Amino acid sequence: MLKKKNLIFVGAPGAGKGTFSAMLLEDHPMAHISTGDLLRDEVKRDTKLGREAAGLMKEGKLVPDEIIAGMVRDRLAQPDCENGFILDGFPRTIRQAELLEEALSSLGKSLDRVVYFKVDDDTILKRLTARLNCKKCGKIYNKLFMPPTVEGVCDVCGDTLYQRPDDSLETAKARLEVFYKQTSPLIDYYRDRGLLFEISELDKDKICAALTAELE
Ligand code: AP5
Ligand code: MG
């Protein structure tokens, strides 16, 4: 069991939030709350929110704070979050962090750690433009760094791999800019609160080891 289990994963697009959430979940039964995945599910189901979000996501812009915070609040109230949770990609603005604080305190919960994956811009752009995701089970691959055994096919469930529409070079650059302008102030926000754990390793095994050592 992890000692620190109510977690935020923060980092630029492509920093590894999804990859290392999946790694941690292999051994620890926690809730994985990826706001990007929640929004992509809304888009897939063609809901009102999904239709609104699709355009913003394609341009690499953020969905409004109150909407996203409401979704997360509802999700945090579900029973599986009692075992701990990883907030992957939320909060992304100071306003979202404030709304999260309100939601957590109304649910009688608190944060244990905010993990910041620090990765340089060149690596980010290489990773994003070579990323592949499984349509069915969501497993994340990379043509350059973590390829599937058979090209275009998921190792786990055999379904087809696809490229996210926001992983074009142009949108990836726009998302990176949004990260620096709107999300990076959260790093000092959480550092000031004594919650930040920064990982600047790029090697997968070293990241896994650092994460486990910090959270166990
Ligand atoms: P979201 O889906 O969260 O996208 P993101 O933050 O841009 O992050 P990514 O999912 O692109 O990257 P990641 O850090 O998960 O990296 P991954 O592990 O896949 O959000 C999408 C959109 O939804 C946003 O742009 C916004 O419009 C909206 N949205 C979401 N949340 C919101 C919020 N809170 N408020 C408002 N709007 C919101 O890894 C990337 C690649 O690198 C993979 O191919 C992987 O295999 C590879 N890789 C990872 N780590 C390594 C490593 N160590 N070595 C080699 N390769 C690696
Ligand atoms: Mg992700």
Polypeptide structure, described:
The protein is α/β, with parallel strands linked by helices and 216 residues long. The chain has 9 helices and 8 strands. The strands form 2 sheets. Strands 2-3-1-4-8 form a 5-stranded parallel sheet, with helices on both faces. Helix 2 (35-44) packs across helix 3 (48-59) and helix 4 packs parallel to helix 5. The radius of gyration is 17 Å and the shape is globular. The termini are close together. The mean pLDDT is 96. The structure holds BIS(adenosine)-5'-pentaphosphate (AP5) and magnesium ion. BIS(adenosine)-5'-pentaphosphate is lined by residues 11, 13-19, 34-36, 39, 56-57, 60-63, 68, 89-92, 96, 127, 131, 140-142, 145-146, 166, 175, 202, 204, 207.
